[in-house]
Amino acid sequence: MGTGLGSAGGAALGAVAGAAGGPVGMAVGMAVGGVVGAIAGAAAGHAAGEAIDPTAEDAFWKENYRNEPYYDSEYDYEDYGPAYRMGYEGYENSDGGAYDETEPELARAWSERHPGSRLGWEQSQPAVRAGWHRVERSLPGDADRDGR
Fold first, then answer.
1. Fewest 10 Å CB contacts: which of 80, 91, 114, 120?
2. CA distances from residue 31 to 18, 19, 28, 40, 63 in whole angstroms, order as listed
C-alpha cells in the first residue's frame, strides 16, 4: 500500500514540478515523481512492517497477560496467546486501519482459525484488541485517527 500511495503522490508532485516545461515536462515530471514516490512509499511500508516484531510481542504478552483486566485464571497463555497474535498480526495486515472497522472480520477469522479454542470470540476479543492497540501505539503517527 505504501508503494502505491507514494507512487501516486510522487507522480502528482512531479507533474506539478514539470508543468513549467509544458506537456513534455509534465509527462517527464510525472514519470520521475512516480518512481521516486514508489521508492519512498515502499520504504515507509517496509519500515512499518519491520517495526512489528512477533517474537518480542509474544514475549511481552507471555510475561504480562495475567495483568490484563480481562484475564481469567481458568485460562493460560496457551489460550490467550493466539488472540494476542491475531491482534498484532491483524493490525499489521490492516495497513493501519481502525480496529473497530476490522473487528467483524477478526471475529469471523477467530471462529474459522481457532475452532478448538477454549476461548470463544467473547473471551478472546479483549486480548485481540489489546494485541492490536499495543502495536498501534508503538508506531509513529495515528493513521486511523483514534488517538492511539
1. 120
2. 10, 13, 5, 14, 50
Each residue's pLDDT expressed in tens, for the chain with a length of 148 residues: 444 444 455 555 555 555 666 776 656 555 655 555 555 444 444 444 557 899 999 999 999 999 999 999 999 999 999 999 999 999 999 987 899 999 999 999 999 999 999 999 999 999 999 999 999 888 776 555 555 5
What is the C-alpha separation between 72 and 81, in angstroms, rounded? 13
CA dist 123 and 129 (Å) reads: 11
Contact 2, 42 (CB under 8 A): yes
H-helix segments, the chain: 2-18, 22-51, 54-64, 77-93, 99-113, 121-138
Q: Which three cell numbers stand for residue 80?
A: 490467550
Cα–Cα distance between 1 and 7 in angstroms, integer? 10
- The cell for 73 is 485464571
Q: What is residue 109's three-state secondary structure?
A: helix
C-alpha to C-alpha distance for 7 and 41, rounded to whole angstroms: 7
Residue type, 71: Y
